[in-house]
Write a structure and sequence with these properties.
This protein has 422 residues and is an alpha/beta fold. Helix 6 packs across helix 7. The radius of gyration is 22 Å and the shape is globular.
Length: 422
């Protein structure tokens, strides 16, 4: 994000959460849920309600009055200060703020634009995609995928002034039109998980979803999983969801899964025994084969997944690699059960499987995903709607693995979950 900043037209004082100043008038200060390094740890205490200066914007940036914000796992990490101390990382890049305002999903109204912004206007109703990068990064200017550039970041996690304040600062290219048929809460819910899922399933040439493909989707009832199952179905594939109970399985099937596996019926999770532990290997392999047979039962044939949609990480990667079909892909965007995953290379190289990391979204992918939403082909899957001061609890529950159905949304400028539909 550019270090060049300019002031925005300010008014005195602040506005209460749930209210808006006149269009284009930006208060000097704003309410936000703020993380500071001396509070790193449990999200329940790391986040606190503060009043802070409203951010200035640069020439290529946009200021958005946040109507609603989405909750994602990345700000569990930000609240913990692990695996990255985001405040410290930004200060080493020359930024001066000693706090973090997170939130990587937002719907809202444009209140100010930088001098060089030509395709976004004050008053536009918008959503924000989370991909951020420097326009003058040599990787980007060479025409390569900007989300792989050295400067690539996730908005509202790697960057400050995300969706958990009354006003958010974004790069102009992140701004996309809000779907008119959605409320502010609905529009804020799916973009990070949806664009992440789109890139994972449709962004890696040679292993994109094709008509009829079988896809295994971990966390099928959550925000990321429900987006993935819908995208698989839209591409002509068949998604099998992995969930933690039958109620979540039925929920996943509402959003496109052809069946589900209750992972609690298996106990072989985690790092498998070493190869020379014959008894341990035999027991682990039996568990993995039983899991794979359940996939076959749902598919109606001895068919292995063409793609495994991964994000738990340490507990599940060994099984994902095992059950993926030869020439298939395990694609992963996170490690919510841990970062230390182990792969038995015998099942990897001999069967020529792909283990692909995936992170964020580029503009092309975000635009394509948002068009599916605007066309009504993707449901945002709002699970619950909370208030700004419930952000600490929402992240603490997420960090403890207390799963919710669909996406959690925070009302900021909006006063009801239904507000904002046109």
């Amino acid at each position: 994000m550019s270090n060049e900043r300019r002031s925005v037209a300010g008014t005195t004082g602040t506005h209460d959460v749930g209210t808006l100043p006149p269009l284009g008038q930006v208060p000097a200060r704003m309410h936000a849920q703020v993380v500071r390094p001396d509070r790193y740890g449990d999200p329940l205490t790391a986040f606190q309600h503060e009043v802070v200066p409203t951010p200035a914007i640069g020439t290529h940036e946009v200021l958005i009055a946040v109507m609603a914000a989405g909750v994602n796992y990345n700000n569990v990490w930000a609240a913990r200060g692990y695996p990255v101390d985001q405040v410290g990382a930004r200060q080493r890049r020359g930024e001066t703020e000693d706090f973090h305002i997170g939130g990587s999903d937002a719907s809202g109204i444009v209140y100010a634009v930088g001098d060089a912004v030509t395709d976004v206007s004050v008053g536009d109703e918008v959503i924000v995609h989370p991909g951020v990068w420097d326009a003058d990064d040599p990787w980007v200017t060479a025409g390569r995928d900007p989300m792989i550039a050295p400067s690539a970041k996730i908005w509202g996690y790697d960057t400050n002034y995300g969706a958990f304040g009354q006003f958010a600062r974004v790069q102009a290219h992140q701004v996309l039109p809000k779907a008119a048929h959605l409320s502010w809460a609905e529009a804020a819910a799916p973009t990070l998980v949806g664009t992440t899922a789109y890139r994972m399933l449709l962004g890696w040439n040679g292993n994109t979803i094709e008509d009829g493909d079988l896809v295994l989707v971990w966390g099928g009832s959550g925000g990321l999983g429900t987006q993935a199952t819908q995208l698989v179905k839209a591409a002509g594939g068949r998604a099998v969801a992995v969930v933690s109970d039958d109620a979540r399985g039925e929920y996943a099937m509402k959003y496109g899964a052809i069946g589900y596996i209750n992972r609690r019926k298996f106990d072989h999770w985690g790092i498998p025994p070493l190869v020379d532990d014959k008894a341990g290997q035999k027991a682990w392999t039996a568990g993995a084969r039983a899991f794979g047979k359940k996939i076959w039962d749902i598919a109606g044939a001895r068919e292995d997944p063409a793609v495994v949609f991964e994000h738990p990480g340490a507990s599940t990667i060994p099984t994902s690699i095992f059950v993926c079909r030869p020439g298939g892909m395990v694609v992963i965007c996170a490690g919510t059960t841990g970062f230390d995953a182990m792969v038995d290379l015998r099942y990897h190289w001999t069967r020529q499987k792909r283990l692909q990391g995936s992170h964020g979204t580029n503009d092309e992918q975000a635009i394509a995903y948002n068009q599916l939403v605007r066309d009504g082909k993707i449901d945002p899957v709002v699970g619950r709607v909370l208030r700004l001061d419930e952000i600490p609890r929402a992240h603490a529950e997420m960090g403890r693995g207390e799963e919710v159905f669909g996406n959690t949304v925070i009302l900021v400028g909006a006063t009801t979950p239904e507000a904002g539909r046109r």
